[in-house]
């Protein structure tokens, strides 16, 4: 699906107890279990309309094949990922990637999410992508602020799109041009 010949550079980090070295790279088959664990820890009713629970490794790999995420490899431990896919199969839509990002709770607020987004911007630009888009629940102000700090802007809002925890919740559409 993507040009895998482009090798991602190693991104170095050293903030608030963060590992000395973070390698951001395309996901591989060996990462599946760690990525499934991150999904089970991060995606809950406050972050997504339906918590993500994988029935098997095979199910996960079918939906999230290797190479469709960038992972933050911190001394051999996967600390987070940013997933990406084309919004449709139309050739005229190949300049856009829909993204989703999750950072393991043990590594949150250490700059890993921002590094993943910055690495994806570089990688995606080299693939000819011009726009990143995402969806975020209006009840998740921390995520909204994080996306804004990474250069994302609201481009639309699906009013009362979900009924969660006995309230109607807007689904915010955000984008970033690269």
From TrEMBL:
<protein>
    <submittedName>
        <fullName>N-acetyltransferase</fullName>
    </submittedName>
</protein>
<keyword id="KW-0808">Transferase</keyword>
<dbReference type="Pfam" id="PF00583">
    <property type="entry name" value="Acetyltransf_1"/>
</dbReference>
<dbReference type="InterPro" id="IPR050832">
    <property type="entry name" value="Bact_Acetyltransf"/>
</dbReference>
<feature type="domain" description="N-acetyltransferase">
    <location>
        <begin position="22"/>
        <end position="178"/>
    </location>
</feature>
<dbReference type="InterPro" id="IPR016181">
    <property type="entry name" value="Acyl_CoA_acyltransferase"/>
</dbReference>
<dbReference type="InterPro" id="IPR000182">
    <property type="entry name" value="GNAT_dom"/>
</dbReference>
<keyword id="KW-0012">Acyltransferase</keyword>
């Amino acid at each position: 699906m993507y040009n895998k010949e482009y090798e991602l550079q190693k991104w170095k980090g050293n903030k608030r107890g963060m590992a000395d070295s973070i390698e951001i790279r395309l996901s591989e088959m060996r990462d599946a279990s760690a990525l499934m664990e991150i999904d089970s820890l991060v995606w809950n009713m406050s972050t997504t309309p339906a918590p993500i629970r994988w029935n098997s490794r095979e199910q996960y790999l079918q939906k999230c094949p290797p190479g469709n995420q960038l992972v933050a490899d911190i001394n051999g431990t996967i600390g987070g990922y940013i997933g990406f896919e084309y919004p449709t199969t139309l050739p005229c839509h190949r300049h856009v990637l829909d993204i989703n990002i999750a950072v393991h709770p043990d590594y949150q607020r250490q700059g890993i999410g921002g590094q993943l987004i910055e690495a994806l911007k570089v990688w995606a630009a080299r693939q000819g992508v011009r726009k990143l888009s995402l969806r975020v629940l209006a009840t998740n102000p921390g995520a909204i602020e994080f996306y804004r700090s990474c250069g994302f802007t609201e481009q639309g809002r699906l009013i009362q799109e979900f009924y969660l925890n006995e309230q109607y919740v807007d689904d915010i559409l955000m984008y970033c041009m690269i």
